[in-house]
Amino acid sequence: MLQPLTAKELEYIADSMSNEDLLLKQNAVLASSSSNPALRQTAQQFIAVHQQHYQTLLQALHQHAGIAPTQPQN
Asked: Which domain of life is it from (predicted)?
């Protein structure tokens, strides 16, 4: 049975999602601006990896949304 996420866990997930988004954007810039085909391909692979990480974190939030407390916890 899932337990509600703590505030610290929610902060960690939010920070991780922000980091994944930043890495995704940085690799997108690299993929679009590099003239080296191997570097572009590697950046595109990293984009896919970071998109998957972001989606995994988002799914974790959605899975816990149904059991989240409706009132602030003391």
From this structure: Bacteria
Q: Are 71 and 10 in contact (CB under 8 A)?
A: no
Q: What is the largest CA-CA distance in the chain?
A: 55
- Taking only the tens place, the pLDDT of each residue in 3-40 is 888 889 999 999 999 999 999 999 999 999 999 999 99
Each domain of the chain, given as residue ranges in start order, spans 41-65
Please state the pTM of the whole predicted model: 0.82
Handedness of CA 30, 31, 36, 38 (dihedral sign): positive
**First-to-final CA distance of the chain:** 22
- Burial class of 27 by CB neighbour count within 10 A (0 to 12, 13 to 18, 19+): buried
